[in-house]
Amino acid sequence: MAERGLEPSPAAVAALPPEVRAQLAELELELSEGDITQKGYEKKRSKLLSPYIPQAQETDSAVQKEQRNQTPAPAAAQTSAPSKYHRTRSGGARDERYRSDIHTEAVQAALAKHKEQKMALPMPTKRRSTFVQSPADACTPPENFSAPPDVTTTTSSSSSSSVRPANIDLPPSGIVKGMHKGSNRSSLMDTADGVPVNSRVSTKIQQLLNTLKRPKRPPLKEFFVDDSEEIVEGIPQPDPNQPKPEGRQMTPVKGEPLGVICNWPPALESALQRWGTTQAKCPCLTGLDVTGKPICTLTYGKLWSRSLKLAYTLLNKLGTKNEPVLKPGDRVALVYPNNDPVMFMVAFYGCLLAEVIPVPIEVPLTRKDAGGQQIGFLLGSCGVALALTSEVCLKGLPKTQNGEIVQFKGWPRLKWVVTDSKYLSKPPKDWQPHISPAGTEPAYIEYKTSKDGSVMGVTVSRLAMLSHCQALSQACNYSEGETVVNVLDFKKDTGLWHGMFATIMNKLHTVSVPYSVMKTCPLSWVQRVHTHKAKVALVKCRDLHWAMMAHRDQRDVSLSSLRMLIVTDGANPWSVSSCDAFLSLFQSHGLKPEAICPCATSAEAMTVAIRRPGVPGAPLPGRAILSMNGLSYGVIRVNTEDKNSALTVQDVGHVMPGGMMCIVKPDGPPQLCKTDEIGEICVSSRTGGMMYFGLAGVTKNTFEVIPVNSSGSPVGEVPFIRSGLLGFVGPGSLVFVVGKMDGLLMISGRRHNADDIVATGLAVESIKTVYRGRIAVFSVSVFYDERIVVVAEQRPDASEEDSFQWMSRVLQAIDSIHQVGVYCLALVPANTLPKTPLGGIHISQTKQLFLEGSLHPCNILMCPHTCVTNLPKPRQKQPGVGPASVMVGNLVAGKRIAQAAGRDLGQIEENDLVRKHQFLAEILQWRAQTTPDHVLFMLLNAKGTTVSTASCLQLHKRAEKIASLLGDKGHLNAGDNVVLLYPPGIELIAAFYGCLYAGCIPVTVRPPHAQNLSATLPTVRMIVDVSKAACILTSQALLRLLRSREAAAAVDVKTWPTIIDTDDLPRKRLPQLYKPPTPEMLAYLDFSVSTTGMLTGVKMSHSAVNALCRAIKLQCELYSSRQIAICLDPYCGLGFALWCLCSVYSGHQSILIPPMELENNLFLWLSTVNQYKIRDTFCSYSVMELCTKGLGNQVEVLKTRGINLSCIRTCVVVAEERPRVALQQSFSKLFKDIGLSPRAVSTTFGSRVNVAVCLQGTSGPDPTTVYVDLKSLRHDRVRLVERGAPQSLLLSESGKILPGVKVVIVNPETKGPVGDSHLGEIWVNSPHTASGYYTIYDSETLQADHFNTRLSFGDAAQTLWARTGYLGFVRRTELTAATGERHDALYVVGALDETLELRGLRYHPIDIETSVSRVHRSIAECAVFTWTNLLVVVVELCGSEQEALDLVPLVTNVVLEEHYLIVGVVVVVDPGVIPINSRGEKQRMHLRDSFLADQLDPIYVAYNM
Question: Which of 1427, 1453, 1424, 1428 is closest to 1436 using CA atoms?
Fold first, then answer.
């Protein structure tokens, strides 16, 4: 409030005219309610005050304001004494009833205690543009922004269509493969792979780690150990020291007998008939206008005659004589606004007289009101087809374009009937309503919203309505002609029972004060009591509080006439302080202390208890001061130890006349409680509801409860009704209520009351941050326990710091006072929480929005580390098992060792080609002579037209020219390394063979991205340096790029080796072609950046090249009459081999489709396959994903273009990862309609040491799939489960093992073989394995370990194996392999150096990412990594930025539920920020480095406590 320009002194305020003061008070109220924004408030306020404040003060205050903005300290001083209106200010529908000075003190004390051990909590990082949707902000990064090295410049566009930047291989993190994968990752982690650790992000993470180091509350006994295959779910054990009830079993308590008064009417309608005919002129009901002045008074005569007219009309005038619309017993909806009690009363009694059953509901305001759908469900289940309403109300209902009332969501079709007098027919003289004595037939249905948001109809019989009226009349001692002021909702609960029923029974005069009047004139009800000398007033704590706020305007009101001030939410434990404060303020206005009568009610049991009006001068009833800790265990203990955690409750009087009450345990069978135990209050009498309409099962559990004793045998035969209230019966049979079943939060076996937690939150000085009346507390079920969530509406003027401060203090306060952790605390913008019709928060709807991720918070704080105490115990690794025992174990179990092999190369006959030529260069020369015009390669552009082709002879000649160029211009010798820098195409292939002809070693490198040199050129530079290249072959365009100014900004261009462009070649041929002396000589180097940011080059010998091509030829049955289509990047691995090597070896024709062309034409790949009727095609996952996402809704277009894929026999995805089954399946399903066979799609598996281990090929069984248990995988075990099992993961075989390849599964620690279906590292032996790493420092040990390593036992042949670095398992299937034996399937689970070791378990990032991606529609992509043992989850948000914070709890929940991990940091970024390489793999280490170096420009970073 300190920012206000005009701040009149208290004296000045007192001098203002009363109407201005009233308007000011009203404004204050609107602001505190959140009905007006801070800005609007200040504008209106200054307008009001401007005539009364001298100009000088204005200019002065403007100066002050400027100073204030610069010096925050004095501002704080000023807020402490603002105008006198502020003193008691606070607002909202649930406001002051929670205010307890004792409690506020307790909270402050608890916080002070925390302050001593205060930790700096890391504040979330929020992008400045978030929630300020100004276009300029959204695109301009902060000033200190340095261009991130890993994303193209398109990142600022956050539209959902934004294409991920052309997949880029990022510069490796300064690590060259020359250190062991597993050996020393941790030392790298600490320095973040060369990223300075002192960045802003790291300090926050450090703060987070410090807060997490604090000891958690629960002792270790609550953890559970994983002994078995199944992890036992953790249910916290009860605390042995918890307080236990010690009293005797309670006996039901009886109320006084219901007085037998001779002239009770036989039914409520008879009472109306009696007064309507004998006392026609007496006033019955007065309604007020908006200003609070009486507008109409309904007399008993008018009420009787109008109700008769309505009853007659309903029964006789709606349909035809033979087919009436309504029959007695039908249900009818009553839709009247809260400011029209008169029309409602007429409608209600009209229905009773017509013997139809009224169902009063709220007026629907929009098509999608909070909870409106459930109301519709109630109407539908009650069979309501007719709604009664007033003309004014009907006009106000939302209409469609053609003027009809909209069909409300979930509502049945209704016929609307207007009940204004002018539309009703006068009954004929001889027509009389049928009024029988009250029986158990239904009278009306009152709706009730349960905890989960469903709406039920409590059916009340005519007898119960009458008996309840009698009991109320006796308890309140009503006498004829008294005036009652009713501030409650007259459609249900106490407002209905007193204001509509007891009134008629006792010929009272009720003055109804609607909510809308209270908002504009909070004192109106007090003025009505004064004016009408009312004897009884029906209010809620809120109304007491509002009256206190505004009472200064009215010095002359008197409340001395009141004999009962019935406080209907007196059952709320926090009502005590409201009653006390109101009494202390209004005692001087004649209010008698004994007049305050709290009562407890519920829809099912109706009035449970009410304090009777006291005798003047008699001592007031005592209070109970209970221990909160005791309450949480359901035990009554007088609070002695810690005054901070006490709850003071007042009694709600005695049991109703004629009633009986008992207390039963809230859960399980209705066992009677002990006398010092809290339980659910149950009432037995004729005065409660009879059932939930149409719900027999729930009805039995609620309305027909027979209490049992501790041995389970029933006590008595009288059925009780559960009231939904929690409490106990105290001394003198006084009833105390401590909470509601609906507000009960069961956390780790302890009960907490949502209202208590709200009160604690509000006792933290909240006024600057949140609206008092707008706080919701509920629990959500996460990981086998309930977790507390607090949601509040934040004031628009609250700063980030204030909010965060408030949030962290609320957490501490709740922790201290209730000894329970809050799982999530969210602040949402003002006026965005769903509301109930009378302005409260709709809790169940808020919870639903939270769970589905559409709450849109503007601030959020998650504390899973404090709350989640039932995680499994971290796994301790067992000491290494000796080889012998493993071996024996395998044999004893009768398991075969997990190994598999492709066909044996020796047995396969081949043509002379192989025997004659050991080198690929020789094969090309031979083809140039024998089939010179046979076309080997065709290159297509985006339009699908052939840009260039190469026949055997053309390729040979071009290669010769390049070879001579290398000798002449490059002066190279045999054995020199040459970098080939070309876009995907035939030029690259020619340069490769040119190098072989000249005896040089080619190194293919992806050219830098012209739009993003700063990110892509360093990779090129690094490969050039590491490979010690003597020369670079490239095209003219790329040559210019390498020497450009932009390139110079990224790398040092002066030190490039010789660069030769091959666009204009000399005519000269080489005198003779180079022939290597042995096949073991090096043929080429294959460089690639792994996903972990390692740059690795492997050496491929001529013999390996030959063996690789031969294996692929045999597996795919390739020969010269065949055509294959390749849509892959040709720079490394199998992609390079297929693009450059295989066609020359096998003679088949390769149609080359550069993947980047697909970005311009998504149809290119599939239409090429269709056009050339291709049987075998190869692609990458990125290509498959592009087609699946881009063509998903275009299948019809493909059909009209005549594209048919039935020609495809194999569509192979080239990959070095676990097969992406979901993507393959959606691709197959999508294009099934255009002929793609579901059997066609398969995948390959390769790694750095061996680029092709598996490839599906043409013969052999289809790839198999299995479901494995995720929990076991984390323990390095494979457990096969059925489809649909919880926590199961679908894995697919990675194609068939290639001819000549042997595979064994090995324990990476002991290096011993493991059994069938056991998880281990995949080791491979094959003639085409690479011959070693090519590194700057040739580390021999690493070569030996990765390329030439032996099993530690069990292999007599001493085979040399290469380690792939991937985890997987082999499983023998029932299928028959090509050799006729049973087929062994190889399943790849994931790369070892990608795995995350957390809590002693091994996680594969992709599993966590899959869970996260499923959780919200706006998550485009997701990546996880760890940093100092914290799990960091990065999600790309493709929706609007206001959804950013919705993702934080959802991500935290799903990772906890499915992976038993607590997320440390959630980072929300724009689409396209997660770097993805050309193979479509996420580069998580790059992401980690960019995050730690603060280069991601995230939308939001949440640090989970």
Answer: 1424
Q: What is the pLDDT of residues 157-192, one digit of tens each?
A: 334 444 455 555 565 554 454 434 333 333 333 333
Residue pair 311/305 in contact by the 8 Å Cβ criterion: no
Q: CA nearest 559: which of 580, 539, 536, 541?
A: 536
Q: What are phi and psi of 664, to 5 degrees?
A: -120, 160
- Bigger pLDDT: 33 or 451? 451
Measured distance CA(717)–CA(719) in Å, rounded: 6
**Cα–Cα nearest to 1280, from 1265, 1293, 1267, 1264:** 1267
Q: Which pLDDT score is estimated for 229? A: 36
Query: Which residues are bridge partners to 650 per DSSP?
Result: 623
Q: Would the pLDDT of 62 be above 50?
A: no
SS3 at position 1197: helix
Q: Are 1034 and 1007 in contact (CB under 8 A)?
A: yes
What are the distances in angstroms from CA 80 to CA 74, 107, 141, 1046? 10, 19, 39, 59
CA distance 768 to 1321: 59
Neighbours of 1381 (CB within 10 A): 10
What does pTM read for this prediction? 0.82
- Dihedral angle sign, alpha carbons of residues 1068, 1071, 1077, 1079: positive
Lookup: tokens for 424: 């009703």
Contact 609, 661 (CB under 8 A): yes
Q: How much is the pLDDT for 214?
A: 55
Q: How far is CA 127 from the centre of its chain?
A: 20
**H helices then E strands: how many in the chain?**
47, 58
| Residue 466: both structure tokens together | 């009458």
Residues 499-502: contacts with CB under 8 Å, at least 24 apart: 499/285, 499/341, 499/538, 500/344, 500/345, 500/348, 501/268, 501/465, 501/468, 501/469, 501/472, 502/469, 502/472, 502/473, 502/476, 502/478
Kindly state the tokens that stand for 824.
């999530």
Locate 576 and state its tokens: 């005590």
Contact at 8 Å (CB) between 1059 and 1034? yes
Q: Please, are residues 537 and 487 in contact by the beta-carbon 8 Å criterion?
A: yes
Helix (H, G, I), strand (E, B) or coil at 601: strand
Q: Which residues contact 1412 (CB under 8 A, 6 or more apart)?
A: 1419, 1422, 1424, 1433, 1435, 1451, 1454, 1455
